[in-house]
Specification:
With 344 residues, this protein is of the alpha/beta class. The chain contains 11 helices and 15 strands. It has 2 domains: 132 residues, Up-down Bundle (Four Helix Bundle (Hemerythrin (Met), subunit A)), CATH 1.20.120.420; 205 residues, Translation initiation factor eif-2b, domain 2 (Rossmann fold, 3-Layer(aba) Sandwich), CATH 3.40.50. It is 39% helix and 16% strand. The strands form 4 sheets. The chain has a 7-stranded mixed sheet, sandwiched between helices. It has a 3-stranded antiparallel sheet with strand order 1-2-3. A hairpin with a 2-residue loop joins β14 and β15. The chain is globular. The protein starts with a strand and ends with a helix. Bound molecules: 5-S-methyl-1-O-phosphono-5-thio-D-ribulose.
Amino acid sequence: MIKTIEWKNGKIRMIDQSKLPLKEEFFECSDYECVVDAIKSMKIRGAPAIGVAAAMGIALGAKNSSASNVDGLLGELEVICKELSKARPTAVNLFWAIERMKKIICLSKWSRTDDLKRDLEDEAIKIAEEDVEASKKMGRIGASLLKNGDNVLTHCNAGSLATVAYGTALAPIYHSLKEGKKIHVYVDETRPKLQGARLTIWELNKENVPTTLITDNMAGYLMSQGKIDKVFVGADRIATNGDVVNKIGTYSLAVLAKEHNIPFYVVAPISTIDFNVLSGNEIPIEERDGGEVTHIGGVQITSNGVSVVNPAFDVTPNLLITAIVTEKGILYPSLKEKINNLRS
Ligand code: MRU
């Protein structure tokens, strides 16, 4: 299984997701500004993956600092954390990871800059390792919801590429495969950025999972024809009432699934739950450049000067969700109560 992001020889190595599937290129960041750019330009994307990138970006920024004393380094780290937190607004894993790193920064036991630098590097690597463990656990737990012969529909990319490895929504599919089950996956292309067509198909095919690509507007028809058994999606932020913010189009799928009596599962690590948010409507939705809608692969597909909206995510109300799979177990309604039990 490919490693989306790793700390290697004091640099961050990532696969360039903006080039997939046509080019499988890795790139290295040797300063935090490169990490900010990689998140903004979606060379790295997916909630858990950008959290790990932010943590490693902070470690890298600290490592490169020439501050002669701890106060100087702390001042630089404040700027670095601020820049990284502005990279994308919706996925809470980004802010969660920055907060984890800030906890190390705020220990106020530092007398030597080198000690703080070392501990930040260790913490970033730990966050990445924990992400892999969480994905494996979600895979094991989520696989119990899948049976041999299931046809699963997924949206966007919530696989290996959206995490350090294995993924969230795709992890149960990978695990089911290991258990010898045959699962077929319908993949929404996921306009406008085509994460489904470009990334999910690429990674599922690499793992020999049978796939069928569909455009986003085909899901309802396939459901009405009895072709979809279950829907599995990831999440960018989950409110404490169980509302889920995920890639634009997720809400429409949930409504369709409800209408057709098809289980709708969200798979996400606990780091995707925002314990400060009561409902999905409080979650900021990233609005991206209209050019992503007016153009496909650099080719203009509509009239000049057309008015466009381009929200990158939407809110799926908790009532439409059958269950949320986390690394700590499957949460069934009432989600609010179950989520509150997870508060640490
Ligand atoms: O804009 P993206 O590609 O970063 O959006 C990603 C998604 O919406 C994923 O479904 C989500 O991050 C869950 S991934 C484990």
